[in-house]
Amino acid sequence: MVQRQERQGMDFIAVDWGSTRFRAWSLDSDGQVRDSTESDTGLKAVTDGAFEAVLMAACGDWMASDPALPILMSGMVGSRAGWKEAPYCPCPADMADISAAAIGFDVAGHPAAILPGATCDDARGHADVMRGEEVQIFGAAELLGLTDAAICIPGTHAKWARLAGGRLTGFETHMTGEIFALLRSQSLVGALAEGDADDPQAFLDGVDHGMAVPVPHAAFAARADALQGRLPATSVSAFLSGVLIGGELAHRPDADETILLATGVLADRYAAALDHLGTAVRKVDAKEATRAGQVRAAAALWPGRVGA
Amino acid sequence: MVQRQERQGMDFIAVDWGSTRFRAWSLDSDGQVRDSTESDTGLKAVTDGAFEAVLMAACGDWMASDPALPILMSGMVGSRAGWKEAPYCPCPADMADISAAAIGFDVAGHPAAILPGATCDDARGHADVMRGEEVQIFGAAELLGLTDAAICIPGTHAKWARLAGGRLTGFETHMTGEIFALLRSQSLVGALAEGDADDPQAFLDGVDHGMAVPVPHAAFAARADALQGRLPATSVSAFLSGVLIGGELAHRPDADETILLATGVLADRYAAALDHLGTAVRKVDAKEATRAGQVRAAAALWPGRVGA
């Protein structure tokens, strides 16, 4: 249980509510964490639209401590399948534009808002979309004191974003994590793989191959090389991971440095691939970036309540 | 049942034995079809290595009509998971090289052979492999009277091959059909799709996008465009098909004409995409190409028995 004294000075509740995870923090006016909670009650686990009940169960104690405590939410909770749809904010956009497009409503007397995500168009008129990552991007820039940056957020749907003059000018989504998982677990290529151990050389070979030729061709080399005895079964997974990440890197923004919002094995792999290409990397913890971005948005939405 | 008189002059049995399908023909010395059979007893349906029993059940009557009738097999039956492993024949190779690398053995007193498939290396030292398609490629060239050609065989693992001076000089596999099926049925992009109706404009938009940017990024546009109301749910499948085929076309051999071994919707889609790029197309029926290739291989293996 949360100690009552921990709630003193807490100025808003930040919620990062995605498809599979629910994360919430009670933050003070300086953006410091007073308390936090995390669970697997992502959108997929919320039945019959019971979003308010899930939120109250997780954050009810914090809400009870202050009847006017604001609640800021970002992520898929603002999608069509979420609590309330917050239409994507078009790029270029800064944090003020994103905040201004939030959907405001009332939750048990508390002022609440859902941030809208962001959208952009490419040269051929195709759309791209993100929900939640825009908060991380602005948060990372805030933490690093940057207004211009190339930012990569690895994951199921990896994002590569460009920040210029403090504005999110455009981004690309790559279905890297989702396609890797499908190929690894269900394809004829994955059928030859044994385990998912790291193999730095096989991984970088995969990166080079995925950058040089189309991913659906490059991925097949894992099978052909394995059949021809050139790639151990235990290295197929690392090679395949390299191929998918190589596909991203072939299309990455032109920048000397990449800001990487990741931790763990995935962060190490992206850092190794970028280093292989001679690109400098700075890693930022994605959760810290989320909180920093939420504080900026909350300060814009409730200026008297939350310090900028 | 086959009439006895139909077996007169029949000079060998051609078998195309893949992962999911078993196809066999009794062919006369001119390569004309006297009889045929087809079933779903591909490799996946053969248990406990009972390949001979499956073959006898399908072709036993033909074999009984002539105790010396040769049996020629191609496809995955020669893989490690097949009847007998026939190691891949390295490119460049002509039909004589492929035939010379066949694995010969005896089936109930009949001379039998399994063709070896083909392998090649790319500029980065990665292998590629095919089993069965090499027979179709040489067969198509025979049917069209060509010694130089760019040949495309769509499918689960689509092949793009180059024939020069009558030799298979190299080829690339693209996991087009397999990745399309995975994305269509199990990904967050496919989740927005309704049906698989054709939409020529959405398909060609997908081709352009898949040629211009990496496939794992291009595929996500199906989701983003659908969410933004630019792509009807009923056109997501056609767009996605275009993206995958566009990935192949970005990497296709440099040639004015493409020989397309396909029929039906897939042939129409590839033809539309190639026409969109200003490339001439000649379609060849894949089964006819298989038979023509088998006749060439059989003539090389059993010259006294089968006419060239």
From TrEMBL, chains A, B:
<dbReference type="InterPro" id="IPR042258">
    <property type="entry name" value="DGOK_N"/>
</dbReference>
<keyword id="KW-0418">Kinase</keyword>
<dbReference type="InterPro" id="IPR007729">
    <property type="entry name" value="DGOK"/>
</dbReference>
<dbReference type="GO" id="GO:0008671">
    <property type="term" value="F:2-dehydro-3-deoxygalactonokinase activity"/>
</dbReference>
<dbReference type="Pfam" id="PF05035">
    <property type="entry name" value="DGOK"/>
</dbReference>
<protein>
    <submittedName>
        <fullName>2-dehydro-3-deoxygalactonokinase</fullName>
    </submittedName>
</protein>
<dbReference type="InterPro" id="IPR042257">
    <property type="entry name" value="DGOK_C"/>
</dbReference>
<keyword id="KW-0808">Transferase</keyword>
<dbReference type="GO" id="GO:0034194">
    <property type="term" value="P:D-galactonate catabolic process"/>
</dbReference>
